[in-house]
């Protein structure tokens, strides 16, 4: 059994506790047991689980795993302290706010002989799975992905906070390059819009937009033009019986048990680091453009 602690009690932290208390029957997730949670706030028991301190979690022999569910800006610090203590770590995306930091953290996990897993539930949704099936075998000519949502503090630059969408594009169309990026921001009205121009290995253009502001609904618009057809909306997909967080919990548990093939682990690490490298480049180009405009 892998005793676990949940760091951060927001939506993700709540779901992690829920899923460990009632794991998918006959799955690897049954090997996880929740021992406590950590929060900056003083809280009552959560789903029957008691609050503990960071020091307790780091020192206890019965706690082998940490689930980091804090705001993005706090991921690196929490990951590093648990890896240093020899604990396995599952973290909500993105694991870090720079590509270099992510490489350092993964190297540290390897040095300590523990698992570092970055959650990517956006790849586990039924609509994305169906989209990937529908895209398979088609030749992209040009693509567009526009996400809108309410602005949240502590989540960092949009290329990182929105890395789920970038991961979609990489998983669908392979490794990408950044050709241009710009950022529009109105701090007084809590609005920002990032536009990134990407290109595939086949030199086909992709435009990715993240637009955040008050009153904006969480929504994705797509327009993928292929050699044989054009997709302008996500395909309908049947709701799956196992939730996306539970699917991720099972995958992480399989990693803990050594049940995931080495080539799959290597491909996942390569994809995660590639997306973070792209996010780094998008941020760099966007800030350069903002400085020139100023």
* Beta content: 25-35%
User: Care to count the β-strands?
Assistant: 11
Q: Provide the spatial order of strands within the biggest beta sheet.
A: 7-8-9-6-10-11
CATH superfamily of the largest domain: NAD(P)-binding Rossmann-like Domain
Distance between the termini: 56 Å
Structural class assignment: alpha/beta
CATH architecture verdict of the largest domain: 3-Layer(aba) Sandwich
Q: Largest beta sheet, briefly?
A: 6 strands, mixed
Radius of gyration: 20 Å
Element-level helix/strand string: EHEHEHEHEHEHHEEEEEHH
GO molecular function, one term: biliverdin reductase [NAD(P)H] activity
Domain Gfo/Idh/MocA-like oxidoreductase N-terminal: 4-120
Pfam families: Biliv-reduc_cat, GFO_IDH_MocA
Protein name: Biliverdin reductase A
Describe what this molecule looks like in 3D.
The chain has two domains: 138 residues, NAD(P)-binding Rossmann-like Domain (Rossmann fold), CATH 3.40.50.720; 132 residues, Dihydrodipicolinate Reductase, domain 2. The mean pLDDT is 95. It is globular and about 55 Å long. Helix 3 packs parallel to helix 4, helix 4 runs antiparallel to helix 9 and helix 7 crosses helix 9. It has 294 residues and is an alpha/beta fold. It is built from nine helices and eleven strands. Helices cover 38% and strands 26% of the residues.
């Amino acid at each position: 059994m892998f005793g676990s602690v949940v760091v951060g009690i927001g939506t993700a932290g709540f779901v992690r506790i829920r899923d460990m208390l009632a794991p998918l029957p006959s799955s690897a997730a049954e090997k996880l047991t929740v021992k406590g949670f950590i929060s900056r706030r003083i809280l009552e028991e959560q789903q029957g689980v008691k609050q503990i301190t960071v020091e307790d979690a780091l020192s206890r022999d019965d706690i082998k795993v940490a689930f980091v569910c804090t705001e993005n800006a706090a991921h690196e610090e929490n990951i590093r302290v648990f890896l240093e203590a020899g604990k396995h770590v599952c973290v909500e995306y993105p694991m870090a706010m720079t590509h270099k930091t992510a490489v350092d953290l993964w190297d540290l996990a390897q040095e300590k002989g523990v698992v570092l897993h970055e959650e990517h539930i956006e790849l586990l949704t039924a609509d994305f799975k169906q989209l990937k099936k529908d895209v398979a075998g088609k030749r992209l000519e040009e693509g567009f992905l526009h996400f809108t949502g309410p602005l949240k503090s502590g989540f960092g630059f949009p290329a990182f906070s929105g890395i789920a969408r970038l991961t979609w594009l990489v998983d669908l169309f392979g490794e990408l390059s950044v050709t241009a990026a710009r950022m529009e921001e109105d701090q007084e009205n809590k609005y920002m819009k990032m536009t990134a121009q990407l290109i595939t290995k086949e030199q086909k253009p992709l435009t990715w937009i993240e637009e955040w502001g008050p009153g904006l609904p969480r929504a994705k618009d797509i327009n993928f033009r292929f050699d044989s057809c054009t997709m302008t909306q996500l395909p309908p997909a049947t709701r799956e019986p196992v939730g996306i967080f539970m699917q991720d919990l099972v995958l992480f548990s399989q990693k803990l048990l050594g049940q995931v093939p080495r080539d799959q682990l290597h491909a996942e690490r390569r994809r995660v680091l590639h997306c973070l490298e792209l996010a780094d480049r998008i941020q760099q180009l966007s800030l350069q453009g903002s400085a020139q405009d100023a």
